[in-house]
Backbone:
């Protein structure tokens, strides 16, 4: 669906029961596209299961071709429709339709979404690419490149393309085509005319690029230009393949990172501990930016794309940690709670987790929320993308410092402690404060001890004193004090116990 909706003059015939027809919601309401996705559903109902559902599919395919007149169609089944085993691929190939038909065999119960998108793109290119296309000699013309990978519903893909076009224009590189986003089946036919390929999103385009390399002898630029350093490497790689001078593109003055390095902000944000999770491309890029460009400490790194686990594990090793490869959001939540970061960079799921724990968070990867499809230009790639990333990551931390100042003056009449952190979850302040754990653990607290300590209770005076501790370490202070009280056998936590615990853990 993401590939079909990204392309032009391509239609998708989806064998699906009533209820699996959610594409309009995704693409018109979330991504805010101005037209509905190019998909025709068979939309069979439960009562149709006693009839010939294969005939329903064939009728829908013929009607779609007659109505939309596409240059090509792709056909497939939703996860529910797979169970009735109508074989849309075989049915469509036997129908002699007047346009190319690309059947998709996507085992929904065995494979994940990015694999399905990559396989769809691969089948489209393999079926439609004209293998007789020959590249023109390079003498007297500019180098040509294919930009591969951007799709519909992609995380900032449209904005990224604007930045990539700027870089290629500065280098004098001509764009042969962009695919899937904006390409037609006829465009795909001339994909072999490019001198090289640019793989922007490996999760979608890596398989295609390797097939093109074998079939058309096209080398590929696989450096993903997310972050200042990676953008410079990307420019150098493209310039080398294009035989161009990289100096004009490297001289872009819009980058704000040098200012950051000299600013007072860098002194109190350097060495912040960050947990990163997402698709492999954005997670690896985020880890490199955090470690090399912003001076953060990467205390956790993982991804849900098992096909790219090797790359993520390699980056985790450079950070001195072990990668987390999983699609279980509960395992990710446990990992975040265990390492107690000061910032979470992740998907929409990690945003929810961070809110529950009261930790600042920024979204760096799909799956995302509607708010991650902004109306403004907001890329992740190129030098402007590096500026956007800087803002996106640093602002939650700065807001945390602001919240600390509000906490310091909570006894003033202008402020009320009952109002929780403005930039975190809309939960009770007490729950947020108790859940927040930003500093490195001071002690391992046995669960039985915590339970016993929790039963002892705090005096009002001790609670008031606890509130003077900055909110981002208050949860750790509370837990350590309760553990100390349990170990000492104290029946209540008063002011003396709080100070004794502080002295104990400060040794």
Residues:
């Amino acid at each position: 669906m993401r590939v079909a909706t990204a392309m032009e003059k391509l239609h998708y015939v989806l064998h699906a029961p009533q209820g699996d027809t959610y594409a309009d919601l995704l693409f018109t309401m979330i991504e805010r596209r101005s037209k509905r996705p190019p998909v025709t559903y068979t939309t069979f109902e439960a009562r149709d299961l006693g009839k010939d559902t294969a005939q329903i599919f064939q009728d829908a395919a013929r009607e779609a071709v007659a109505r939309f007149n596409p240059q090509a169609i792709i056909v497939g089944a939703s996860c529910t429709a797979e169970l009735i085993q109508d074989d849309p691929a075989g049915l469509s190939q036997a129908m002699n339709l007047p346009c190319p038909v690309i059947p998709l065999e996507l085992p929904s119960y065995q494979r994940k979404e990015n694999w399905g998108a990559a396989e769809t793109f691969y089948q489209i290119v393999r079926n439609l690419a004209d293998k007789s296309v020959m590249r023109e000699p390079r003498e007297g013309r500019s180098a040509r490149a294919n930009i591969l990978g951007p799709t519909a519903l992609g995380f900032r893909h449209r904005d990224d393309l604007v930045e990539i076009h700027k870089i290629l224009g500065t280098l004098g590189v001509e764009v042969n085509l962009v695919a899937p986003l904006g390409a037609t089946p006829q465009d795909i036919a001339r994909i072999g005319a490019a001198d090289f390929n640019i793989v922007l999103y490996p999760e979608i385009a890596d398989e295609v690029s390797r097939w093109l390399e074998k079939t058309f002898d096209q080398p590929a630029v696989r450096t993903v230009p997310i972050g200042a350093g990676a953008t410079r490497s990307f420019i150098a790689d493209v310039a080398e393949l294009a035989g161009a001078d990289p100096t004009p593109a490297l001289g872009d003055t819009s980058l704000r990172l040098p200012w950051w390095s000299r600013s007072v902000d860098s002194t109190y944000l350097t060495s912040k501990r960050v947990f990163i999770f997402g698709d492999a491309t954005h997670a690896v890029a985020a880890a490199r930016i955090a470690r090399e460009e912003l001076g953060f400490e990467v205390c956790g790194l993982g991804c849900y794309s098992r096909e790219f686990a090797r790359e993520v594990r390699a980056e985790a090793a450079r950070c001195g940690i072990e990668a987390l490869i999983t699609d279980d959001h509960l395992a990710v939540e446990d990992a975040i709670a265990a390492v107690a970061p000061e910032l979470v960079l992740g998907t929409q799921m990690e945003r929810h987790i961070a809110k529950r724990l009261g930790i600042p968070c920024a979204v760096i990867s799909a799956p995302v929320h509607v708010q991650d499809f902004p109306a403004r230009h907001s890329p992740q790639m190129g030098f402007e993308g590096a500026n956007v990333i800087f803002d996106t990551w640093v602002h939650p931390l700065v807001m945390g410092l602001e919240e600390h100042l509000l906490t310091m003056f909570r006894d003033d009449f202008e402020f009320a402690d009952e109002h929780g952190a403005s930039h975190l979850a809309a939960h009770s302040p007490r729950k947020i404060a108790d859940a927040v754990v930003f500093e490195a653990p001071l002690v391992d607290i046995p669960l039985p001890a915590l339970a016993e300590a929790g039963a002892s209770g705090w005096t009002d005076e001790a609670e008031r004193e606890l509130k003077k501790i900055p909110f981002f370490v208050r949860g750790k202070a509370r837990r350590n004090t309760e553990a100390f009280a349990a170990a000492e056998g104290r029946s209540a936590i008063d002011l003396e116990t709080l100070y004794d615990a502080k002295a104990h853990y400060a040794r």
In short: The chain has four domains: 2-110, 144-250, 257-402, 439-505. Residues 426-456 have pLDDT under 50 and may be disordered.
